[in-house]
């Protein structure tokens, strides 16, 4: 901005006008995840689900099975169902609440907003893994004190795989949100399409081969273990390309071009 | 500071904005007037980079809006007061914006005070706000980055008379300190009191623009004749600028002498010839936009509002 506009009494002395950094935008998007009741309750629910799973195991699981990894892994699946909803809401909320109008007026480079949203969702997914680890730790402590196995032995790779599982889930949700830009549509499509695909893969014989490469329900299952074979990684990669990378890329294009009204 | 050049927006076969050009200078308030559906909001959204134009371009402070590094500190934008997350509190909505542009949190409180939202109101969720409160919040949002330019779409909607008076003072003061204001309205009265310049849009096209005072005096001369069509022809052929007013007379942008001469030359007997009343701008506004809010598919046969003027007179009787 040139300062040469010499209207004698300017409205305000100019501050240095800098483009908001991605870091700042990510912090804003994280704040937006929690500053509404819907977002806050979703996060509380995610934490509560992990806690309930641990309590159930303390009550019903065999004492020998009350180990840290056994407390940790079962919480991943229900949390993994809720994280995509968080991802979807963070994107579609802008359109359903029409805040896109103010958001994109403040940051017209929309790809930066989208990048910040994806980063915030990834951080939320990682935080959910920390929450799962924390409640599992509490469960293990209680189990140790009440006669359960209370074993702490856990493979580091299992935790890494769990983190990858949750990040992928959250990003898949965000991808559906970006592509459909409508909350109910994105949630229904996200929950229904992969399930439909699983059912079809079971029912229709010629689809069985492709399904084992494309059904994320199947390809992500090995992430609950500490070791994956090369082929399992390949299947996982292909399914995530189709269900994560493609929706995010296509959705980004749609978001960049869409008229904001 | 705001430069709009040949902006056009087409939706399929419908032309929402048709070759609109105007400029807003620092220190002035520009009123962007037109009936609902005339293309005001679409034009403002195109200026702010939210709607891609079919043709033409707009700049703010010499740059296309989308290339401004931190637009919130250059341009305050209020396009729709209802476009706030219903679940956020007023204060939270401003805090999110302040964080985005890197403005001190103190500014949030300062701007809430400025627009008259007290601590209790700031703690409430936007869902519970009246339209007037949302407008005040939207104005606080627009002013948050201490911009030099304000772009406001129908900011007086939902404000009570006291609120409208207050907002006029605020905008006048902003412009007097060197700021640039562009505000739209479908009510002439609302804008007349504060604007220096007017841009009148109807059916997507700019139908009049200029200094408010010029447009006011430009209301010119009101004239009637028993044979209105003959009078119209006479005035047209004399090269005078004529529009039908709402009462079946004609408004001519010329002195009474020129009008009378043109009528006499054509042998048309006048039944009325006088300077247009002070409400002339309003009549001008109404008649200029008489084409209606939508651009009809067929190009208006003669392009003249005569056809619209006749039924108006019938209605008036």
TrEMBL record, chain A:
Signal sequence extent: none
Species for this entry: Micromonospora deserti
Protein's name according to its UniProt entry: ABC transporter permease
Upper classification of the organism: Bacteria, Bacillati, Actinomycetota, Actinomycetes, Micromonosporales
Residues annotated as transmembrane: 40-60, 72-93, 114-138, 158-180, 187-204, 233-253
Key words of the record: Membrane, Transmembrane, Transmembrane helix
From TrEMBL, chain B:
GO molecular function: ATP binding; ATP hydrolysis activity
Keyword presence, Transport: yes
Residue ranges annotated for the ABC transporter domain, each copy included: 2-228
Low complexity: bias regions: 289-308
Region of interest (Disordered), ranges: 288-317
Key words, A-Z: ATP-binding, Nucleotide-binding, Transport
Entry-linked SUPFAM superfamilies: P-loop containing nucleoside triphosphate hydrolases
InterPro entries for this protein: AAA+_ATPase, ABC_transporter-like_ATP-bd, P-loop_NTPase
Superkingdom of the source species: Bacteria
Short name of one Pfam family: ABC_tran
Family the UniProt entry places it in: Belongs to the ABC transporter superfamily.
Protein name per its UniProtKB record: ABC transporter
The organism's taxonomic lineage, starting at the top: Bacteria, Bacillati, Actinomycetota, Actinomycetes, Micromonosporales
């Amino acid at each position: 901005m040139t300062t040469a506009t010499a209207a004698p009494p300017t409205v305000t002395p100019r501050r240095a006008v800098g483009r908001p950094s991605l870091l700042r935008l990510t912090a804003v998007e994280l704040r937006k995840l929690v500053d509404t009741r819907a977002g806050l309750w979703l996060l509380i629910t995610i934490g509560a689900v992990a806690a309930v799973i641990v309590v159930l195991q303390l009550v019903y699981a065999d004492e020998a099975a009350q180990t840290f990894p056994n407390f940790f892994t079962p919480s991943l699946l229900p949390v993994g169902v809720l994280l995509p909803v968080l991802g979807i809401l963070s994107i579609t909320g802008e359109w359903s609440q029409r805040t896109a109008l103010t958001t994109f007026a403040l940051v017209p480079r929309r790809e930066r907003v989208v990048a910040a949203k994806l980063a915030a969702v990834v951080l939320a997914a990682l935080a959910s893994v920390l929450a799962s680890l924390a409640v599992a730790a509490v469960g293990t402590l209680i189990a140790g004190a009440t006669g359960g196995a209370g074993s702490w032995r856990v493979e580091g790779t299992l935790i890494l795989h769990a983190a990858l599982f949750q990040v992928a889930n959250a990003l898949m949700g965000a991808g559906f949100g970006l592509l459909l830009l409508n909350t109910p549509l994105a949630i229904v499509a996200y929950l229904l399409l992969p399930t439909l695909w699983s059912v079809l893969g079971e029912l229709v014989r010629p689809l069985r081969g492709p399904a084992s490469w494309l059904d994320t329900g199947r390809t992500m299952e090995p992430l609950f273990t500490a070791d994956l074979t090369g082929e399992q990684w390949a299947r996982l990669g292909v399914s995530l390309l189709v269900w994560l990378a493609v929706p995010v890329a296509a959705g980004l294009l749609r978001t960049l071009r869409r008229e904001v009204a | 500071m705001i430069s709009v050049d040949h902006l056009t927006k087409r939706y399929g076969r419908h032309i929402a904005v048709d070759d609109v050009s105007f400029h807003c200078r620092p220190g002035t308030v520009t009123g962007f007037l037109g009936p609902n559906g005339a293309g005001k909001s679409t034009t403002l959204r195109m200026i702010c980079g939210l709607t891609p134009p079919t043709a033409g371009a707009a700049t703010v402070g010499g740059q296309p809006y989308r290339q401004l590094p931190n637009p919130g500190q250059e341009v305050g934008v209020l396009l729709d007061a209802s476009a706030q997350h219903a679940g956020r509190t007023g204060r939270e909505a401003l805090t999110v914006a302040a964080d985005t542009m890197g403005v001190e949190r103190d500014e949030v409180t300062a701007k809430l005070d400025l627009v008259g939202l007290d601590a209790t109101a700031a703690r409430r969720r936007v869902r519970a706000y009246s339209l007037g409160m949302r407008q005040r919040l939207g104005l606080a949002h627009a002013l948050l980055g201490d911009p030099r330019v304000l772009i406001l779409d129908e900011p007086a909607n939902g404000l009570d008379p006291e609120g409208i008076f207050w907002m006029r003072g605020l905008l006048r003061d902003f412009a007097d300190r060197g700021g640039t204001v562009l505000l739209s309205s479908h009510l002439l009265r609302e804008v007349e009191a504060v604007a220096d310049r007017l841009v009148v849009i109807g059916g997507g096209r700019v139908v009049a623009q200029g200094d408010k005072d010029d447009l006011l005096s430009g209301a010119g001369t009101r004239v009637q004749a028993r044979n209105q069509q003959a009078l119209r022809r006479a005035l047209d052929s004399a090269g005078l600028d004529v529009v039908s007013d709402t009462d079946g007379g004609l408004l001519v942008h010329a002195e009474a002498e020129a009008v009378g001469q043109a009528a006499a030359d054509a042998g048309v007997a006048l039944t009325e010839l006088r300077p247009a009343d002070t409400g002339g701008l309003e009549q001008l506004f109404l008649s200029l936009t008489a084409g209606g809010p939508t651009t009809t598919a067929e190009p208006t046969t003669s392009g003249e509002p005569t056809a619209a003027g006749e039924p108006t007179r019938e209605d008036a009787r």
